[in-house]
Here is the input.
Amino acid sequence: MSDMNRREFAEAIALASLAPLVGHRAGLMSFPALESGAGVVDPASLAKALTGAIRAQYGDRLLESDFDVISHQIQAALERAAKLRKVPLSNGDEPDFVFSPVRAPSVG
Amino acid sequence: MSDPTWLTIPELGRLLRDRRVSAVELAEHCLARLERLGPAYNAVVTVLRPQALAEARQRDVELAKGKDRGPLHGVPYGAKDLLAAEGAPTSWGAEPYRGQMLRRDATVVRKLREAGAVLCAKLAMVELAGGMGYNQAFASFTGPGRSPWDRARWSGGSSSGSGSAVSAGLVPFAIGSETWGSIQFPAAFCGVTGLRPTYGRVSRHGAMALSWTMDKLGPIARTAEDCGLVLAAIAGPDPADPSALDLPFAFPDRSAERKRYRLGMLKGTLEKTQPEVRRNFEESLRALRDFAEVEEELELPGYPYDEMASIVIDAEAASAFEPLIESGRITELTAPEDRIGGYAGQVVLAKDYIRALRVRRPASAALDALLAKVDAIVAPTLPTVAWPIDAAFDKVYPDYPGGASIGGAANLCGVPGLFLMNGTGEGGLPTSLQLTGRALGEGVLLAIGRRYQQRTNFHRLAPPGL
Here is the structure.
């Protein structure tokens, strides 16, 4: 079975040459970020460990060849995440979602 | 009744209001085509004959009494089978959900009913909107979506039936969804017009969730004008969907009308595209230059947009489909790769998902700054014509992977896109042109699309033999 799906194909055709990564923090209070990069785990070994987590949960229903594919997919995802770490962020850079507290209308 | 098969929404509206055709006759016409031709393209899951005829009769009664609900009054349509419609099964294209009955209408279905449109069919789709990582056209219990231009070619996905049903003249318009490419591909491969609205323009309530922060619902139709009329009916706030923006959309959007527009092209956008795709795109540029300046050297900001989009979809889909994976019924999916495609997402690290959401904000601001320089970025919708139905996606057209693309960035950041047929290429198959604009800039894209289609005739071409 192939290990490239349509999304990966879309990525492949979307390969824009990545210019130097530049953070954008207009209008936000900025806190200094620590240098990162030290102690980054090799994606292959982390993928192997995470595949173990899949094996622990679902091992009874998957074949060994399935685990090879899954491990490859996990490693690809970790490599994508590694690219995100090259974008500088500081403590005040919030996720792009907003939590809204709920207060239901009073009854009676 | 003259043949209404290839008419646009305004043309159908004139026939209805002039009493030259009734809503029942239109519905009958579409139902017959859906039943007779739908199977040839694996386009249909459920034909809603009794419901459609009952609705159409009601629309005729209303028109006779002088009640006109607007441009969609009495116009038939189809909905991708990830939209709930009361009284009809909603399968999500996936065997484990075949026969699933959801008790309420999706907001889009409700709004279209209120606008007078007549739901005639639930349309086929790639299982779970492609969320399990399919790599082939055979990824739905309805079979591979086939393009009306050549049944040996894929219709595109995941809104397969929405694209092929409009292309084959089974319905004048359809609703599809896009998380990453699912309106774009069928619009291109089926030679029709597709609109991916801004994230939040259209309520997602009642639609299957693949990615709560990236799913968008939008129309596939004959023309940009048709897409605008449908968007006007389905856009707007919805208490059931907190992401739905309180910004109704009017069409035509007069504020979007300009004498001349500014268009941009990404540097390298034409690299590694099929020669016919390049030729047709350059021909399109000549038509566009009648009313637009084209700046050719834009560059996408240097953020890992595609990687972020993948992480967001993987993490959100892992949660959305956790019950399916836990149940073990994921093994019932059609494509073998889909049966194991959901496991890797189960171990996406929380910190990686959160980081993607954190980087998305500055990355969106940078993309908006680029898009603000022009009215739209123009590009070939895809680098090739429709793919052979039996080819693995990673093996097809290896020489033409395409050049710089805005697709991942646009979907991650939730900005709108319009896809229009712009000619034929290899094997007489459609090629397509895409316009990408700023968030909430659908009006501008549709205005440009209308001007382009006033100068060209590709949207009037029917697939051979139909």
Summary: The longest helix of chain A spans residues 64-84.
